[in-house]
Amino acid sequence: MKLEKKSDKKVGGAYSEIGPYASFGIQFAVTILLFMAVGWWLDGQLGTTPLFILLATLFGAVGGFYKLYRTLMDLDEKRKREES
Asked: Residue 2: inside a domain, yes or no?
């Protein structure tokens, strides 16, 4: 039977704590890129080159920030409930 070191437990605990936060950057970037792609497609269809790509990118950034904020607040509430 293998004995675990205290440092191994600390490392494992740290990874389990940051796990929920690890995908936020990718999720934020993908949201913006998807909205940008829709804006690019609309501009191609309507011939309004910079208009919809700028609006969609802005809308994607706002939506991404909102989703990030809500997820962080939900995780914070969950952490507070577990502590009490």
From this structure: no
Residue 74: pLDDT above 50?
yes
Residue 74: C-alpha distances to residues 5, 77, 78 (Å):
33, 5, 6
**Do the beta carbons of residue 31 and residue 56 sit within 8 Å?**
no
Number of separate domains in the chain: 1
DSSP letters of 34-66? HHHHHHHHHHHHHT-HHHHHHHHHHHHHHHHHH
Q: Which domain holds residue 58?
A: 21-77
pTM: 0.71
Start-to-end Cα distance in the chain: 35
Has residue 5 been placed in a domain? no
